Amino acid sequence: MSETITFDKAAKHYILEAFGLGLDKEGYIVERDNPSQKVLTVDGDEITEGEFAGIKKGSLLFFKSDLPSLIELADRL
Q: CA torsion angle for 10, 18, 55, 49 (degrees, to 10)?
Protein backbone atom coordinates (compact mmCIF):
# COMPACT_ATOMS: atom_id res chain seq x y z
CA MET A 1 0.00 0.00 0.00
CA SER A 2 1.35 3.41 -0.96
CA GLU A 3 1.30 6.15 1.63
CA THR A 4 1.39 9.85 0.83
CA ILE A 5 2.28 12.60 3.22
CA THR A 6 1.22 16.13 2.33
CA PHE A 7 2.45 19.30 3.94
CA ASP A 8 1.72 23.01 4.00
CA LYS A 9 3.97 25.38 2.04
CA ALA A 10 5.29 26.71 5.36
CA ALA A 11 6.77 23.25 6.10
CA LYS A 12 9.02 23.12 3.00
CA HIS A 13 12.10 24.22 4.93
CA TYR A 14 11.57 21.52 7.58
CA ILE A 15 10.97 18.81 4.98
CA LEU A 16 14.15 19.71 3.12
CA GLU A 17 16.12 19.80 6.37
CA ALA A 18 14.84 16.32 7.29
CA PHE A 19 16.36 15.02 4.03
CA GLY A 20 19.73 16.69 4.69
CA LEU A 21 19.08 19.53 2.28
CA GLY A 22 19.27 23.31 2.52
CA LEU A 23 19.13 26.43 0.38
CA ASP A 24 21.90 28.45 -1.21
CA LYS A 25 21.96 32.26 -1.45
CA GLU A 26 19.83 32.22 -4.61
CA GLY A 27 17.20 29.93 -3.04
CA TYR A 28 18.21 26.74 -4.87
CA ILE A 29 17.93 23.44 -3.00
CA VAL A 30 21.40 22.09 -2.21
CA GLU A 31 23.02 19.27 -0.28
CA ARG A 32 23.48 20.55 3.28
CA ASP A 33 26.91 18.87 3.62
CA ASN A 34 28.00 20.11 0.17
CA PRO A 35 26.27 23.45 -0.53
CA SER A 36 27.90 23.74 -3.95
CA GLN A 37 25.92 20.62 -5.03
CA LYS A 38 22.45 21.65 -6.19
CA VAL A 39 19.79 18.94 -6.34
CA LEU A 40 18.24 18.24 -9.73
CA THR A 41 14.76 17.34 -10.88
CA VAL A 42 14.15 14.17 -12.89
CA ASP A 43 14.67 16.34 -15.99
CA GLY A 44 18.08 17.49 -14.75
CA ASP A 45 16.93 21.00 -13.83
CA GLU A 46 18.09 22.84 -10.73
CA ILE A 47 15.17 23.59 -8.41
CA THR A 48 14.38 26.43 -6.03
CA GLU A 49 12.43 26.19 -2.79
CA GLY A 50 9.59 28.10 -4.47
CA GLU A 51 9.39 25.50 -7.26
CA PHE A 52 9.65 22.52 -4.91
CA ALA A 53 6.53 20.32 -4.86
CA GLY A 54 7.74 17.08 -3.28
CA ILE A 55 10.04 14.10 -3.07
CA LYS A 56 9.14 10.62 -4.30
CA LYS A 57 10.08 7.53 -2.27
CA GLY A 58 13.12 5.60 -3.47
CA SER A 59 15.87 7.62 -4.99
CA LEU A 60 15.28 11.26 -4.21
CA LEU A 61 13.37 12.54 -7.21
CA PHE A 62 12.47 16.23 -7.02
CA PHE A 63 9.48 17.71 -8.79
CA LYS A 64 8.70 21.33 -9.59
CA SER A 65 5.25 22.71 -8.86
CA ASP A 66 4.54 23.52 -12.52
CA LEU A 67 1.86 21.67 -14.48
CA PRO A 68 4.14 19.51 -16.70
CA SER A 69 6.14 18.31 -13.68
CA LEU A 70 3.01 17.50 -11.69
CA ILE A 71 1.52 15.61 -14.65
CA GLU A 72 4.73 13.60 -14.89
CA LEU A 73 4.54 12.85 -11.16
CA ALA A 74 0.93 11.69 -11.54
CA ASP A 75 1.95 9.44 -14.43
CA ARG A 76 4.74 7.92 -12.31
CA LEU A 77 2.37 7.17 -9.44
A: 40
